[in-house]
C-alpha cells in the first residue's frame, strides 16, 4: 500500500459566479505541511507511492466481474470570447459479461419508448461507442484498456503519470487522493490533470475531478460524484481447495 505523506481536510464551499453558483473544494491542511521546496528524493518517492497505489487500483478494477454505479456528472467547456458551456447529467455504468454499458438520460429515454433496438453494428461503430463511454465514465478506463495510464484520456497522446497520493477528508469521509498529470508529471504546463478520490476500504473511485486542454484550444473540465451499487470481484480459489469447483465468487466490497 502506498505511503501517505499528509492528511488534508476538504470542505464544500460555494463560489458565486455572476448569477450562477458553482461548488468547489476548499482545502485546509489538517496536519503537518510539506516543505516549501521538495527535494528530488521526495519527488521521486511521491511518484513511486502514487504509481504503486494506482497499480493496486487497476488490479482491483480488472478483477471486477460485475459492477454497477450511478454518477452525477458536470462538464464545463470554455472557449476564448464565449460563455462557458455547462452540462449536468446523471449516468449509470454497468459491467456485465465482460461488457461495459453506460446509460445516459438520452439512452434511457430511447429504451423507455422502444427505440433502442439491437442492431448489427460495425467494428468502427463499436469502437466509437466504447471511446464515448470511456470519455464520459473515465474510471472505467482502468477496467477496459490495456494501458490505463497511456490511454486514460482520449486526445492526450503523451499519457499520464501518477504524481501524488495522500489521504483526505471530504464531507466526513476518509478517501485516498491520487493525482494524474499528463506527460512525465514534472511540467506545470501540462495539457491534462485528473484527481481520483478512492474509498480505501472498497478500493473503488468515488469522485473524479479532471481538467484538459482540447485540441481546438478550449478548456474542458469534468467532475463525477460516483456512487457504487454493486462490485463483484473474481476471487481466485487455490487448486487444493475443496470448493474449487465453485469457480468465481461474487463479493461486494
Question: Would you mind describing this structure in some detail?
Answer:
The structure is a single chain. The chain has one domain (about 5-165, about 185-195, about 200-235). It has helices at about 40-60, 105-110, 125-135, 140-145, and strands spanning about 5-15, 20-30, 65-80, 85-95, 100-105, 160-170, 175-180, 190-200, 205-215, 220-235. Strands 2-1-6-7-8-9-10-3-4-5 form a 10-stranded mixed beta sheet. It contains 4 helices and 10 strands. The protein has about 250 residues and is of the alpha+beta class. A hairpin with a 6-residue loop joins strand 3 and strand 4.
Structure characteristics:
disordered N terminus; 10-stranded mixed beta sheet; 19% helix; alpha+beta; 4 helices; 253 residues; disordered C terminus; globular
Summarize the structure.
With about 250 residues, this protein is of the alpha+beta class. It contains 4 helices and 10 strands.
What's the helix-strand series?
EEHEEEHHHEEEEE
Characterize the biggest β-sheet: 10 strands, mixed
Shape annotation: globular
Q: Given the helix and strand composition, which structural class is it?
A: alpha+beta
What is the helix content? 10-25%
The fraction of residues in strands falls at: 35-45%
Report the total helices: 4
Mean pLDDT: 78
Low-confidence stretches: 1-38, 108-115, 241-253
The strand order across the widest sheet is 2-1-6-7-8-9-10-3-4-5
- What count of domains describes the coordinates? 1
Radius of gyration: 20 Å
Count of individual beta strands: 10
Amino acid at each position: 500500500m502506498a505511503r501517505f505523506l499528509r492528511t488534508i481536510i476538504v470542505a464544500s464551499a460555494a463560489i458565486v459566479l455572476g448569477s450562477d453558483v458553482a461548488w468547489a473544494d476548499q482545502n485546509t491542511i489538517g496536519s503537518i505541511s510539506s516543505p516549501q521546496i521538495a527535494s528530488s528524493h521526495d519527488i521521486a518517492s511521491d511518484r513511486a507511492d502514487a504509481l504503486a497505489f494506482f497499480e493496486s487500483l487497476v488490479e482491483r478494477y480488472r478483477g471486477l466481474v460485475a459492477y454497477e454505479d450511478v454518477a452525477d456528472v458536470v462538464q464545463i467547456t470554455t472557449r476564448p470570447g464565449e460563455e462557458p458551456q455547462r452540462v449536468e447529467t446523471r449516468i449509470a455504468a454497468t459491467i456485465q459479461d465482460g461488457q461495459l454499458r453506460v446509460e445516459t438520460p438520452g439512452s434511457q429515454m430511447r429504451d423507455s419508448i422502444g427505440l433502442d433496438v439491437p442492431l448489427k453494428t460495425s467494428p468502427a461503430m463499436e469502437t466509437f461507442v466504447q471511446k464515448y463511454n470511456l470519455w464520459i465514465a473515465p474510471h472505467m478506463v482502468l477496467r477496459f484498456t490495456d494501458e490505463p495510464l497511456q490511454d486514460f484520456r482520449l486526445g492526450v497522446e503523451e499519457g499520464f503519470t501518477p504524481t501524488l497520493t495522500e489521504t483526505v477528508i471530504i464531507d466526513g469521509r476518509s478517501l485516498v487522493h491520487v493525482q494524474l498529470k499528463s506527460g512525465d508529471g514534472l511540467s506545470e504546463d501540462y495539457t491534462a490533470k485528473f484527481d481520483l478520490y478512492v474509498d480505501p476500504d472498497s478500493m473503488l473511485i468515488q469522485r473524479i475531478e479532471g481538467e484538459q486542454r482540447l485540441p481546438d484550444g478550449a478548456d474542458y473540465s469534468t467532475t463525477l460524484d460516483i456512487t457504487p451499487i454493486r462490485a463483484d470481484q473474481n476471487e481466485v480459489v487455490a487448486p487444493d481447495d475443496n470448493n474449487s469447483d465453485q469457480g468465481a465468487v461474487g463479493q461486494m466490497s
